[in-house]
Design brief:
Blueprint: H1 3-23, H2 26-29, E1 33-44, E2 51-57, E3 66-67, E4 74-75, E5 79-80, H3 82-90, E6 95-101, E7 105-106, E8 111-121
Antiparallel strand pairs: 1-2, 1-8, 3-5, 4-7, 6-8
The chain binds zinc ion (ZN).
Zinc ion binds near residues 74, 77 and 110.
């Protein structure tokens, strides 16, 4: 990895941190939510085996529903489930399924996910 790549990565990391701080906590935005679980399966280009992952959110978690891409060279990519989750909460839905593909640059081994979101209400 060259230096300009590194600094781009560092800038992306700092931006992610700032986004967390800006997002605030789940209980502030969604006081009716007891927990959110993202059950997902990663599929990465060039790798045969799928990788399962579970991400949990609680009232004290940051209300930032972003999941990283598996590609090491991925910049500005990842999966944003914010719209999915806020729509579910608005409609008081408990489960939703779908899939997303990473649209980041500049590497060629970005991943895709199949997800299932489960929300428990207080
Ligand atoms: Zn990616």
């Amino acid at each position: 990895m060259n230096n300009s790549m590194n600094s781009r990565k560092n800038a992306a990391r700092a931006e992610r941190l700032q986004r967390r701080i800006d997002a605030g906590f789940v209980d502030k935005h969604f006081p009716e939510v007891a927990s959110i679980v993202i059950n997902m399966m990663y599929n990465q280009k060039g790798i045969q085996k799928s990788l399962p992952r579970i991400v949990n959110f609680f009232p004290s978690s940051y209300a930032l529903f972003r999941v990283d891409c598996l590609s090491r060279g991925c910049v500005d990519g990842g999966f944003d489930l914010t719209q999915v989750i806020t729509a579910m909460i608005r409609n008081h839905r408990e489960t939703a399924k779908g899939d997303l593909s990473c649209e980041g640059g500049p590497s060629h081994d970005h991943s895709a996910i199949v997800y299932e979101v489960t929300i428990q209400y207080a």
